[in-house]
Amino acid sequence: MNNTEDGLNKRKGYLHQDYLFFHLRDQESQTFSMHYHDFHKLILFIEGSVTYCIEGKYYHLRPGDLLLVPNNALHKPLIHHEQPYERIVLWLNPHLHIVSEDCMQCFYTSCNQSHLLRLTTKNQKHFRHLLEQLETSQKDNLFAHELLETVHLTQLLIWLNRYILEANHSVTSPDIVYHPRITQLIDYININLEKPLPISELATTFYLSKHYLMHFFKTETGYSLHQYIQKKRLIKASHLLQDGIPPSEVYISCGFTDYSQFARAFKKEFHTTPKAYLLQYKN
Question: What are the residue boundaries of the HTH araC/xylS-type domain, all occurrences included (predicted)?
Answer without folding.
Answer: 183-280
